[in-house]
Design brief:
Aminopeptidase; globular; 30% helix; 38% strand
Length: 144
């Protein structure tokens, strides 16, 4: 994989230390999301993607499968590793996983500053702008 990146599907119980570390740095410290919103009780039931570079966990995402689609969220990359394809590697793995599980689509609540990134993968904007955790978002969907 590009830049020695490896994306693994992990369970919360096995990898929560690494997942929490990344999300605390990105969402709580950097983006000022309040912990009560970040830790919503859904992690134990979800599928998680964890990106490693040289054995270090540097990015993550969370997928919740509902009916015939995947709700993808909590996508985060540590600041010093942005711009090297970590987000793309995460999204590619999520798309492949959704297709392997014969899901019809992936739904995301995208931060507005990341919309162009998701559009490159074929996601389409499905909502007006709204506030989530004091950050501007829009719903997006990728249909298969």
């Amino acid at each position: 994989m590009k830049n020695n990146l490896k994306v693994e599907i992990v369970k919360w119980i096995d990898s929560y230390t690494q997942l929490k570390n990344i999300r605390e740095k990105v969402f709580i410290q950097e983006q000022k999301v309040i912990p009560e919103l970040e830790w919503d009780g859904m992690d134990e039931k979800a599928m998680h993607f964890l990106v490693f570079k040289d054995e270090e966990a540097i990015g993550c995402a969370r997928a919740i499968v509902l009916k015939n689609y995947m709700q993808l969220g909590r996508m985060a990359v540590l600041k010093k590793y942005r711009g090297i394809g970590v987000g793309s590697a995460l999204l590619e793995k999520a798309i492949v996983t959704a297709k392997l599980n014969q899901l019809s689509s992936i739904h995301i609540s995208a931060q507005c500053n990341a919309i162009d990134f998701y559009v490159k993968f074929g996601f389409k904007v499905m909502s007006d702008i709204y506030l989530d955790a004091e950050i501007l978002h829009r719903d997006m969907t990728l249909e298969f």
